[in-house]
Prior knowledge:
By secondary structure, the chain is mostly helical. It has helices at about 15-40, 45-65.
Amino acid sequence: MNYRMVHFSEIESLRASLQFLAFSEAYLYSAAHLCAALAASPTESSYPRGAVVLSLSFHGIELFLKA
């Protein structure tokens, strides 16, 4: 298995607004994938996991607006 090291240096040269935008996209991407995973296996779905999807979505939107 190959591992790819990720580091803040990927975005540290960007303006703050573009950093917010990058994090916004990451939060919304994560929310979408978690939502799809929960929808695919209803037995894994629960209120706390659904609340996490909403929290990720809300934070992604907040960062988008800040950007």
